[in-house]
Amino acid sequence: MPAPRPHPRRSESQKVDDSLPRGVLLASAWSWRLLLIGAAIAVLLFLVVQLRLIVVPVLIAILLSALLIPLRDLLMRAHLPKWIAIVLCMAITIAIIGGLVFLVGQQVRSEAGTLRHQTMASVEALRTWLMGPPFNLSNRQIDGGISQITDAIQADTQVLINGALSVGSTVGHFVTGLLLTLFSTLFILIDGAGIWRWAVSVFPKRARLAADGAGRAGWATLGTFVRVQILVASIDAFGIGLGAFFLGLPLAIPVAVLVFLGSFIPIVGAVVTGTLAVFIALVYKGFWFALIMLAIVLFVQQVEGHVLQPLIMGTAVKVHPLAVVLVVTAGSLLAGITGALFAVPFAAVLNAMIGFLSADTGTRGSPPLAQRGTALWQVVPAERVRRNRVLPGK
């Protein structure tokens, strides 16, 4: 009969683990892993900030591509060659952007003289108002206040000098970013599928199916978000711009363009840009026109918040309004206007990808294609109409 094998001596670390409650062990295990994940995210954010002159144009190109790829596919289904469809997509994009810039520049140039006279008249009216009750300020006090403001600006000469010296660099960065955006958009339209296949090949083989499915779910959500957001932004810009036009406000077209661009920051952007229309009405038309313009802006925002966002955006992108406010605030704190612009699409894509992976882990007994198809239509509402093509047996 063989002798019993002696039990291996337990290490000191095992003895310590046995002496600790299970909750402490779980908390410590989670803590170091969360710290490691947080450190990785911090390093990633640091790299993004350092490479922002490359990252931001590429992100804008991805947004444009999510809008243009369906148009390219539509033109190709109309029996146009792929290269002609791509050229048309790029030409339409450049024409729209150039047309908006031309309209804004033309109106600003045509109304420059009138705006100058109205601005001087508004300044004199403000001075008269400050000299009357309830302020009863004298000319000396008003001039002293203006001098204090001027001195405060001149006191920060270093910032002004640095800003002046960086003008050439800023213009160069803008041109570089614009060209990088156009080239990135062009190559995504040409070979976006090949670029995605290469990105998926970076993952381990066992994770490629999940990465591919999560990426497709995120891309479908991003495309839906961009199309719906353009519709919402157009309605906001049309409503506020039309109100400014009928009230006879100057710069109605630039205000509408700013509202359109600002509406890509949900909930916050259109309010801020709409405030500009109210300020213009107050300066150039008076209090009652400003009050009417404020009512128009509030009405448009109520329509967006209670009709457009729930009915259109809510059914297309499943992101709670509270989450929208929080991610926009976090994005603006981290990266200013750029962060606020990309915060909501990033959250929507991340939500779709996590939803796909969660649905995928819950259906491990199903074939891989069924897992991907089922999860895709579950987490991306806009894909439900395509479910029969993804799952022909359903």
TrEMBL record:
<comment type="similarity">
    <text>Belongs to the autoinducer-2 exporter (AI-2E) (TC 2.A.86) family.</text>
</comment>
<keyword id="KW-0812">Transmembrane</keyword>
<feature type="transmembrane region" description="Helical">
    <location>
        <begin position="323"/>
        <end position="350"/>
    </location>
</feature>
<dbReference type="InterPro" id="IPR002549">
    <property type="entry name" value="AI-2E-like"/>
</dbReference>
<feature type="transmembrane region" description="Helical">
    <location>
        <begin position="230"/>
        <end position="249"/>
    </location>
</feature>
<feature type="transmembrane region" description="Helical">
    <location>
        <begin position="286"/>
        <end position="303"/>
    </location>
</feature>
<protein>
    <submittedName>
        <fullName>AI-2E family transporter</fullName>
    </submittedName>
</protein>
<dbReference type="Pfam" id="PF01594">
    <property type="entry name" value="AI-2E_transport"/>
</dbReference>
<feature type="transmembrane region" description="Helical">
    <location>
        <begin position="83"/>
        <end position="105"/>
    </location>
</feature>
<keyword id="KW-1003">Cell membrane</keyword>
<keyword id="KW-0813">Transport</keyword>
<feature type="transmembrane region" description="Helical">
    <location>
        <begin position="53"/>
        <end position="71"/>
    </location>
</feature>
<keyword id="KW-0472">Membrane</keyword>
<feature type="transmembrane region" description="Helical">
    <location>
        <begin position="24"/>
        <end position="47"/>
    </location>
</feature>
<keyword id="KW-1133">Transmembrane helix</keyword>
<feature type="transmembrane region" description="Helical">
    <location>
        <begin position="255"/>
        <end position="279"/>
    </location>
</feature>
<feature type="transmembrane region" description="Helical">
    <location>
        <begin position="174"/>
        <end position="199"/>
    </location>
</feature>
